[in-house]
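Dear support,

I submitted the protein below through the web form. The confirmation email said the job was done, but the results page showed an empty box. After a refresh the structure appeared. I'm attaching both so you can tell me whether what I see now is the final result or a partial one.
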Amino acid sequence: MSEPSLRALGFYNDDLDMLGLYRRDPDAASRRWDAAWESWWHAHAKDEPWKADTSSWPIALQPLGAWNDWPGLSLPEGTAEPGVGFVGQLWLSTHVSLTAAQAAQGATLELGRANEEEKSWVNGQGVGGSSQQPDAVHALPRGLLHVGENSIMLNIFCSWKNCGLSGPASTRFITFADGSRVALDQPWRYKPVDTLIAPQQPWGPMHGVGLQYNGMIAPIGSYGVKGAIWYQGESNLYFAQHYQATLTAMMADWRGQFGAALPLTIVQIPDYGPTPTQPGESLWSDVREAQRKTAEADRNAALVVTFDIGDPKNLHPPNKQEIGRRLSIAARHLVYGEAIAPSGARAAAARRSGDSVIVSFKDVTGTLSAYNGTPNAFELCDAASCRWAQATLAGDRVTLSSAGAAARVRYCWGDSPVCTLSDASGLPAGPFELAITP
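What the results page shows now:
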């Protein structure tokens, strides 16, 4: 979305401020980025690895290259997709020994290809970062280097393949003002982090704020658009709390450009990852619920449910034909005004009735049904936990027994849930979470 809309949203103002500073003074923006990155990391991880003694870290395979090609090293499995391996952040540390004549000069740190987001420190001081660069280079101010051992520390975030310092070793060195250089050929040590996603460079070509709008939406101008499809969400797993507000703001931004009544069909992210065997939390479900709420709150939006046609082991599921068919159903309703349900049965409300909870549905074609006659995957939740619920069907309602003190109902929760509720349309009822009303 556009910068004014991002600014009004309020979640990205620090990034927008840094982006504005970068346009005026790239060096000052880089220094501010160093401070912002370190502050974020310290608040979330409670440590400062860029100042740490790394001598106990394991030694990485020389000459580095993409870390997924390192054989026999202890990297956690960050994804279920074959051939991808660890995704996340990797700390890399090495040292270089300098003479007095070398240390007295200004210099540059040259790292070669860095994939995707790289942040660097020399002797504990931030020297900038890069995003998807074939030749990551950082200026080192005079006085930063010293005689003897100097520490080089990197944090590299990568969400896909060919991650890390993937260029040849001959591209990694420190170059001095007099033109001489010293190779970074000492052992590199590493430490993986798969539980955090650090801030990403506001002006970078991978995750730059406003980048995709400026490159892909603004140039279209004010052409009339019959409708739009939004199929995205996997990269927002750790930011689901802002997803509904952000998607709503983006839809308004597009409508300001293409027309106030622009119809938008939202494809829920499909199943990927483990099938739940017990009720539990799910980042994938958090995003799906934000997508559902966005569609429910917008009369010119429709939701396409896909939890049943993804691939638990493939982030890019192959069954695009069925997704297209379901999109056509939503478009026939939303764009062309046909009197058909856009996406199967949709949960409308959950209310208490004695010791039971009755969940009512709308847009039901015929009556509700389940593959085996009894719907599964319903959960009753209190403030602390959720439990499976026994469910029975009647028309456009599902009754959950033994509700007790439950305050919420969840359905079809989990990364790759198996859920059986449908209706005569053959489309699945989608995941949802609803508060129970008296």
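Response: this is the final, complete result; the empty box was a page-load delay. The longest helix spans residues 26-45.
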